[in-house]
Write a structure and sequence with these properties.
Layout (H helix, E strand, L loop, with lengths): L4 E5 L4 H15 L4 E7 L9 H15 L3 E7 L8 H14 L3 E4 L7 H16 L8 E2 L2 E2 L7 E5 L9 E4 L4 H9 L23 H18 L4 E6 L17
Parallel strand pairs: 1-2, 1-4, 2-3, 4-7
Antiparallel strand pairs: 5-6, 7-9, 8-9
The structure holds zinc ion.
The site of zinc ion has 5 residues, from loops.
Length: about 240
Amino acid sequence: MKLDILAFGVHPDDVELSCAGVLLVEKNNGKKTGIIDLTRGELGTRGTAETRRSEAAAAAEILGVATRENLEMADGFLQNDEAHQRKIIGAIRAYQPEIILCNAPEDRHPDHGRSSRLVAEAAFLSGLQKIQTDKNGKSQVAWRPKYVFQYIQDRFLQPDFVVDITNVFEQKIEAIKAYKTQFHGGAESVNEEPQTYISTPDFLDSVVYRHKWFGKMIGVKYAEGFISEKMIGINNFDAFIKENT
Ligand SMILES: [Zn+2]
């Protein structure tokens, strides 16, 4: 299955918190989108790998992605090494995305930065023909996505560009809230579990403020921010938002 945009997150919910808006915008734009979670988030204080699996599936439904896969790497301990890169290369070659979205280059959770480098390096290596991989006994062809954008999640980082997600913002929040065990306002049964950094009402508020802040910078209500190591090229000035800022 060929995808236009493939979003990687090291933990199920990273994508929802950071770039689900863009996935919705692009889906509405007729593009085929998908998500790959690197781990099952099994070290999360609240909930279990099983609850996270069903929450991720519910969120995928809301986001209308064509596929969501889990590579079942070890939460907290995944490494940027050949074995892990080969798994990611296999996934990139299977879906042949034009654009990849991945974790922030540095963040509160150390898995985020490591996963970001792992995915970005694998995206480059995936284009090298002499690295051979196969799927279901068939050898895969080399594929390099045109862009790798890192999404901004917890710590503030200066974005290189931001995308207006105002029209899909409610849907994005719905997808975040699909993680009932993780965030405030979840199921009754989990409200007795220990409170964590992300389970307080303040955390969810901060997600909304972040998107409002990025939105304000371009004169819209809500936006998501991205970093690109590569120079971004556009065809013409029509893509620019023209608000008074
Ligand atoms: Zn995470």
